[in-house]
Amino acid sequence: MSVHPSRQGQLAEDRMSVDPPSPQGGGLYLEDISVDNDYVMYGTNIKAQTYLEELSRRRRAKQIAVPTDDLKVRAGLRELGEPITLFGEDKADRRERLRKVLLERQEAAEEDVEMRSVTGSVRSVTGEEAEDEDEEFYTPGDENILEVRKQVARYSLICARQRRAQQIKDAAFPLTKLVKQARGLSEYLKTYALMGTQFVADRAVSCVRFSPNSELIAAGSWTGSIRLLQVPTLEDDDISILRGHNDRIGGLAWHPEATLSQSPNVVNLASGGGDYTVRLWSLSQDTPLATLQGHEGRVCRVAFHPSGRLLASASFDCTWRLWDLEMQQELLMQEGHSKEVYCVAIQQDGALVVSAGLDGIGRVWDLRTGRTIMVLDGHSREIYGADFSPDGYHIATGSGDSSVKIWDVRKVRVSATIPAHKSLVSDVRFFNGDGDIPGITQEDGAPPLRGSYLASSSYDGCVNVWKSDSWTLIKSLRGHSDKAMSVDISSDCRFIASSGWDRSVKLWASETIGL
């Protein structure tokens, strides 16, 4: 049948839509070629399909996060009901076996598997659970905490105004004289040496703190007792041992007016212990005046608010808490850390609190609003020490990564990283006092020395002293035969005290000082 020439083009398009054109030469398209992987690979007894499936499984296995800590790997295997170790198996083999088991569980359950680094346990996570974990929640507050926040705001504004006025005055001091003063302080600190040692317990001494008048040292140990030592003799005070905790002492703090205007019959000292309690002590009896209960885990560092009315405590229950000392009750239970909270410190103005712990993260909280204003995210290991500089805006943190970091709250970032030690940094303390350099006459109008240097203790057995203007090492104090666990600086700029795993308290001072 003939087709009119005007219809030939349309007819060709219709045929193209029904039957796709064949390639030139009468070949096949790639998608038309059937693929058969069910054959034995050359030189092996393995079928290609089996090999491809194994490659796919290996790729999926690499995407499963498995802890590198062998203890957590063992805990994960135990949780899954698998043998903890096999004959001839090393750490790497055990880790790969855990990965393989997780992959098998994932394939069987058709859902993601998560390794919890906190406990090493393993669990399946569904989509609904993941959404629940990301939800925000709010902790309701009562009228007491609202009133306390108002009082803190009024107190901190007055202190901040005074601090700001002092800083403006200090800025007018001639730079040449300021450099001379800093050089004199460095030369004085370089003369520090070991002046005395006192063995105070049968176990490690975990914390030491000078009293505000620099005449007493409180030393807490893993026996649960607290020793009060006189300075500089390191002899026992009239009340030599404070007993009340049933487990190790985690932290000590003196009331801001203790040994000054505070009566010895009221609260002068606070301690946190492994028995989940915070205890308050006077200087007239060897038993606690009060016990603050509420924590659900070991209590570590404690810190007084500069007003003396409030106390903060850090705990292994992943919270830090704020206590009203007059009412002896808990005002605030603050969450925000994914692991145990080890240390807490309060700014000298009383407005800010820094908390840090075993999650390697620090958080700066505004007590006036209850909000986090800064996250200290930079350490690769746990944080064991934190302290505010008297300037109000610098924070020092010591970590298990052997470094000390200096954070600037104004710029909301880290301002310096000090490779401070060869092992874990256990404590950091700024000089916070009104003392002058002994034996050196200060210039008229010279800025106070508080905040001008920093001390850090470490499990390498050393106590290091650092300049605050350049963060350079001034002096390394060596004397502990084992780990140095805590450090403090007296407010009169005459002494440094440290405690350690060797059960001792050591007193450091200048060789030229008159005792």
Describe this structure in words.
Keywords: Repeat, WD repeat. One of its GO terms (cellular component) is U4/U6 x U5 tri-snRNP complex. InterPro entries: PRP4-like, PRP4-like_sf, WD40/YVTN_repeat-like_dom_sf, WD40_PAC1, WD40_repeat_CS, WD40_repeat_dom_sf, WD40_rpt. The protein is an alpha+beta fold and 515 residues long. The protein has a single domain (144-510), classed as YVTN repeat-like/Quinoprotein amine dehydrogenase (Methylamine Dehydrogenase, Chain H). Helices cover 21% and strands 34% of the residues. A 4-stranded antiparallel sheet has the order 3-30-29-28, with no helix packed on it. α2 crosses α4 and α3 (70-79) packs parallel to α4 (91-109).
Short description:
The protein is an alpha+beta fold and 515 residues long.
**What strand order characterises the main sheet?**
3-30-29-28
| CATH hierarchy: architecture | 7 Propeller
CATH topology: Methylamine Dehydrogenase, Chain H
Give the structural class: alpha+beta
The CATH class assignment is Mainly Beta
Shape: elongated
Average pLDDT works out at 87
Strand content: 25-35%
C-alpha termini separation:
127 Å
Give the proportion of residues in helices: 10-25%
Q: CATH H level: which superfamily? A: YVTN repeat-like/Quinoprotein amine dehydrogenase
Secondary structure tally, helices: 7
Count the beta strands.
Answer: 30
Radius of gyration: 32 Å
Extract low-pLDDT stretches. 115-132
WD repeats: 242-291, 292-333, 334-375, 376-417, 477-508
Keywords: Repeat, WD repeat
GO molecular function: U4 snRNA binding; U6 snRNA binding
Region (Disordered): 1-26, 113-135
